Amino acid sequence: MKFLMFLCLYMLAHNFLAVLYLKAAALVLRRKKSSPGPEVKKVSVIMPVYNEQECIVRKMENLLACFTHINRPCEVLIGSDGSTDDTPRQVEAFIREHHLDGWRLVAFEKQGKGPTINQLVLGSAGDLIISTDADTQMAPEAMESIVKAFEEDVGLGCLSSTPQYDGRDMTIQSCYWKYELSFRDAASHLGRLVVATGWLYAFRKDAFRDIPASAMADDLWVPLTVLLQGKKSMHLKGLKALSEFTDDHVEVKRRTRVITGGFDVVKRLFPEIIKKPDLFFVVFSHKINRWLLPVWVVVFILASLIINVRAAFIYGILLAVLVGVLSPKRCYYLLYSVFSPVLSAVQFVARKDFSKWDHTRKKTE
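Structure (tokenized):
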């Protein structure tokens, strides 16, 4: 029983120790200087959208500002996946008003984000694909930085931005993101970043594998399939993606859905992942072990209670202190976040199609 308790304790600690392991590996391996990659001949920006009338014009203006900083042929493909609001009309009006050659609106019946991305990539003419969301603002120099990164490293297959939240009332989730970004940074130094920031990321077109029709997590599918081809996946610290205003309630809801999609993608690719020990270690540490967090917590508590029932008194005191420090509401969000993989597992078992759109952003008042 003690062995089981200490095993669970280590698995809980592994979530933090893995960051140190990856950093140590990066120091030992000290990646060789990268060879220059081929010149990017054309950039294709793809933007799958669904009912984005509140932000689509602002996003297109943002793209225009970015294009002034690069001297490459560019195109923009906006895929409206069954939008029922004013999004398609606004896009077409913007293109006409600014006389934008190479900008296209592609309308689809509602099929899901993954299939929409597949069709946009298939219809693109660029050798470098930049995928971005309608509610994400990019710095004017963002595209220039992306192009430069791919031209400086022939082995780079996928490049992610780093998220920036306009989340003034975030508490629990802001702490989570500090930890998450430290893990991503450590994995990126090894060229083994398994998840991209879905709001803004880029990849070589020839490294893209079609996203399964019923899958959702393109930001996990794309970097993982790039890594399975022996290419690098990294993030660029200077490449920021600003998300919409959000809070703990929105974030835990979003996280549950993201974990559900992650289950699906890892399950599909697991037979390939298990054949690459270094990649499996990162996937296990970054995703699988984190999803098992509720299991380790519950088994650890039960094992410790079996060993000494008086531990219940200690746990009661710790819970009371936690509630006192965080407030009952924030304590609820913390526990909800910790046990969200259980809710995701239920959704995963109950659902077969994870590709349909589900906006989780906070409603503006």
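The chain has a mean pLDDT of 87. Residues 61 and 232 are 32 Å apart (CA to CA).
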